[in-house]
Amino acid sequence: MSGLCGKSKEAEIKRINKELANIRSKFKGDKALDGYSKKKYVCKLLFIFLLGHDIDFGHMEAVNLLSSNRYTEKQIGYLFISVLVNSNSELIRLINNAIKNDLASRNPTFMGLALHCIANVGSREMAEAFAGEIPKILVAGDTMDSVKQSAALCLLRLYRASPDLVPMGDWTSRVVHLLNDQHLGVVTAATSLITTLAQKNPEEFKTSVSLAVSRLSRIVTSASTDLQDYTYYFVPAPWLSVKLLRLLQCYPPPEDPAVRGRLTECLETILNKAQEPPKSKKVQHSNAKNAVLFEAISLIIHHDSEPNLLVRACNQLGQFLQHRETNLRYLALESMCTLASSEFSHEAVKTHIDTVINALKTERDVSVRQRAVDLLYAMCDRSNAQQIVAEMLSYLETADYSIREEIVLKVAILAEKYAVDYTWYVDTILNLIRIAGDYVSEEVWYRVIQIVINRDDVQGYAAKTVFEALQAPACHENLVKVGGYILGEFGNLIAGDPRSSPLIQFDLLHSKFHLCSVPTRALLLSTYIKFVNLFPEVKTTIQDVLRSDSQLKNADVELQQRAVEYLRLSSVASTDILATVLEEMPPFPERESSILAKLKKKKGPSTVTDLEEAKRERSVDVNGAPEPAPASASAASTPSPSADLLGLGAAPPAPTGPPPSAGGLLVDVFSDSASAVAPLAPGSEDNFARFVCKNNGVLFENQLLQIGLKSEFRQNLGRMFIFYGNKTSTQFLNFTPTLICADDLQANLNLQTKPVDPTVDGGAQVQQVVNIECVSDFTEAPVLNIQFRYGGTFQNVSVKLPITLNKFFQPTEMASQDFFQRWKQLSNPQQEVQSIFKAKHPMDTEITKAKLLLGRSSDLGQHSLKKLILTLQTLWALASSTPKPPRLDACCVWSRICKLRCTGSRCAQARTLFPRGYVTYCRSSFNPMQAVGLCVLFPCVSATLGDHTAHSTMEHLSTCTSSLGPGRGWDTKGLLTGTTAGLPVQGGPGSMKSRQPVVQSTN
Amino acid sequence: MVTGRATPETSRGRVHAQTAKIRFILIQNRAGKTRLAKWYMQFDDDEKQKLIEEVHAVVTVRDAKHTNFVEFRNFKIIYRRYAGLYFCICVDVSDNNLAYLEAIHNFVEVLNEYFHNVCELDLVFNFYKVYTVVDEMFLAGEIRETSQTKVLKQLLMLQSLE
């Protein structure tokens, strides 16, 4: 077979195909193969597979080999099974049978092979078959040592894969005593098993602590020759020591003083040995010794209770920071990172700052520099923040591309957290953008704007600094964004200086305009309209720009629309209205820094969290208040389930008629509207009701978990994507979602799904697909039950899965004759049911029809849009002759369509169809909420109505909005600026609603 | 004696990786040919192939002055180069780096003894024996046996059965 390795790929394939054909014919031949040949050919197949070719036969022959009495044949059989495992149920049964025989054979070699096979495959079927058997083998008095080793790890594998199938029992206490076993190999294997079991059941295994301590003590105090086979380059049993130290990290410091004293002695001995002259110059010696040392330091940090040991550990790591071995420098930096979070050693860690900064500058290996950045971040506090941030910034200029974004995030966080002086903060962030603009994510520049807006003492400085930074001939687009936003808000603060007069500010920004991407240009257009308000003297200049063909006829809808709307707004609105609409942004609600959230997501659960948590205790947050729980941030980032169209959900309902909230509009056809308008009620029943008419959204949310749904249905089939989001920074373990159908439902509804990965990392989202088939009609909905382990606790959540019969409805076209013909055929008495109830709300067929249509408007095509508009025209005609409530409702529907259409490319159509009647109606209705809605629509209204009408409407509006009282007025402005700035939507009353959520909320 | 917290968390809220273990062991030559792949986690074939390629790309660009550890996805690769072969072990980021680095060396010394100056071709043609050696020393993603004497004794015993 040596020919297989050389020559060309084609020659290899040709040769292999020939060989495969040969083997196939041997297996199919009439002559029964003897064991030796069978082994030879199975082995050849394995070889071919390992070369990277597919093998689709030979499984049966391999299974046959398992029952051979010859070791070599059995071994090849088991190897084939382990490498080419196939969940073919037929074979699994045969394989399990062979394993069972071998386990019972009392032949240690065969038992070993069988155990290794189970450990390598570890499937659920095997766990079912052997999870009860293996503990017996493990603790039986007459089992050979090598078999015990294999049994311990085999059991560990089964326990990890299917913990539910491994029965706890008497054996557990006997397993703990394996720590005392004579044979160190058995102890090595058993320690791994015990560690894993102890992590899950600490109480049950707590006797392992004293046993582990005494075992460890015997090892570290032994002379280097005592342990013979287990001494590795003069280090006694290094791997076992490491494992024992890991096991001890499952528990707090021992409470028994004797045990505790003995452990402290061990740890001191290990620290002392590090100072002794090496017994060998070989790197293996020092590596093995230091492996134990680092694990001991981990345990010291874990216990975090002996200041003396912590400081000694820190000094030891300090020595390693300057060691000539790169590995040790790397590990010292890494270990010190965790040490920095202990209050006992934080100060000691800080003394090494110069060494660490030096490492950042001189290390050749990027992973070492990365560790140095991490450590600087961990050791940063108010006393050294300026130095560390400056060093990180200067390192950023030459940093590897792979770690730039992370450094940017870290700098941004540190600068914010430890800013005493906010001018320093602003300078730092602008420097960040200058040095590494491409790596400055949205979160970073959003955050600087949030902070500048929330702190008036820094606004003037920020405006001046961005203005200066923008003077650079080439500046990063992110700077243009920050600059545009800040000058739009606070440009007036520097307008007194003739060097930064309004016109100069505008020209400066506009000189960057053409080099920017569409979102930035859109943002700049908003800045311009804000300038119109701030600086009446540049109004005509800006109007000229807006009026130019490159804006008004821009190919991009968003830009075109902004240009049109702003131009109209600037020309028709009075200065008072402009001032109201374009007022300065309100302060952002305080919340966890979005940057921190991003860093957590990037770095995974462990590293960031503990640092952050530790820091939170020590430092006062930038806002002078304790940081709010992270849950608030994630809650705000998901669109509120009841977020209604105009952001008015929190407002009191209109005095007459049904609630004007458009959010309730859809649901109230089916149920009472109260639940639908309730702000953010995550009760699963409420959520369930919302899904009756929609297919996508958030089904469930609590502190830990968010469940989102996306589904589609066609005829009797459906598919649902369930997204499980881990909102914490800690892994979920044993994550098992199960779909439960009641017995009678099972027959009517077919649900198929695949199991998801049992671990969900912190911040991660996993997806599960459910294929649905509706067999017959049903009433109950299936239940989704989710169980998982978070930290040490077991979580259990059940929600009703919104699969309802109406998802499978299909419209049928039918002439009225046909219909009545069928209707009359229904003559049996039980086929007719009638019940009369009092309606809660006035009913109007046309409105209902429109609502239903609108419910599907997410995928509104040209055709259905026309249909919808036609319906509404009829509706309008109807509404104008009916009393108020239906008209109000009609208005809501209209405003919704216009809103929808305004953001799409078909906006023009809706605009032209927008009836003047609506405007007139609103003017006469004196309903402030309606008026605000109109104000939102104002730009597109004004585009279609004459100047005069629009102007008087606007005037009318200003009276209306002022009657709303404080806190509501800037809703109108929010809608204009909020949509344009592209900033994250902030929650809270009077919040801005960006266009994106507006469209989503109508789905 | 221990009546403290019932959860394996430290005072800093840090949770140790519950599945601290080897994810896979790879032996590759400089050209990227896999000489041994032992998986301790479920991956499908495409994923395995991708991992093999990525590990090769990550490891071969590093020079001798670099550390023997390199972060890889959410894991860490501990590797050491012997002549033209890279021995790589993929573990959790929180695992003991040096212990696995020496576990590699221990494994290589056993191979060297067993095959009498092991070379790449030994691994190719005696692949089934290499798997036996691995299973003797590492099982279920854990270190099973560290004594070279004991492993070699067992291997010679098995060889005598052939």
From TrEMBL, chain A:
Residues 630-651 have a biased composition (Low complexity). It is a peripheral membrane protein. Residues 599-663, 981-1003 are annotated as: Disordered. Gene3D superfamilies: 2.60.40.1230, Leucine-rich Repeat Variant (1.25.10.10), TATA-Binding Protein (3.30.310.10). A 1,2-diacyl-sn-glycero-3-phospho-(1D-myo-inositol-3,4,5-trisphosphate) binds at K26, Y36, K40, Y41, V42, C43, K44. It is found in: Membrane, Coated pit. One of its GO terms (molecular function) is clathrin adaptor activity. InterPro entries: Adaptor_Complx_Large_Subunit (IPR050840), AP2_complex_asu (IPR017104), ARM-like (IPR011989), ARM-type_fold (IPR016024), Clathrin/coatomer_adapt-like_N (IPR002553), Clathrin_a-adaptin_app_sub_C (IPR003164), Clathrin_a/b/g-adaptin_app_Ig (IPR008152), Clathrin_app_Ig-like_sf (IPR013041). One of its GO terms (cellular component) is AP-2 adaptor complex. Residues 689-802 form the Clathrin adaptor alpha/beta/gamma-adaptin appendage Ig-like subdomain domain. Keywords: Coated pit, Endocytosis, Membrane, Protein transport, Transport. Residues 652-661 have a biased composition (Pro residues). Adaptor protein complex 2 (AP-2) is a heterotetramer composed of two large adaptins (alpha-type subunit AP2A1 or AP2A2 and beta-type subunit AP2B1), a medium adaptin (mu-type subunit AP2M1) and a small adaptin (sigma-type subunit AP2S1). Component of the adaptor protein complex 2 (AP-2). Adaptor protein complexes function in protein transport via transport vesicles in different membrane traffic pathways. Adaptor protein complexes are vesicle coat components and appear to be involved in cargo selection and vesicle formation. AP-2 is involved in clathrin-dependent endocytosis in which cargo proteins are incorporated into vesicles surrounded by clathrin (clathrin-coated vesicles, CCVs) which are destined for fusion with the early endosome. This is AP-2 complex subunit alpha. It comes from Heterocephalus glaber. The lineage of its organism: Eukaryota, Metazoa, Chordata, Craniata, Vertebrata.
From TrEMBL, chain B:
Residues 22-161 form the AP complex mu/sigma subunit domain. It is a peripheral membrane protein. One of its GO terms (cellular component) is AP-2 adaptor complex. Belongs to the adaptor complexes small subunit family. The keyword Protein transport applies. One of its GO terms (biological process) is intracellular protein transport. Its main location: membrane. It is found in: Cell membrane; Membrane, Coated pit. The gene is Ap2s1. This is AP complex subunit sigma. One of its GO terms (molecular function) is clathrin adaptor activity. PANTHER family: ADAPTOR COMPLEXES SMALL SUBUNIT FAMILY (PTHR11753). It holds the Pfam family Clat_adaptor_s.
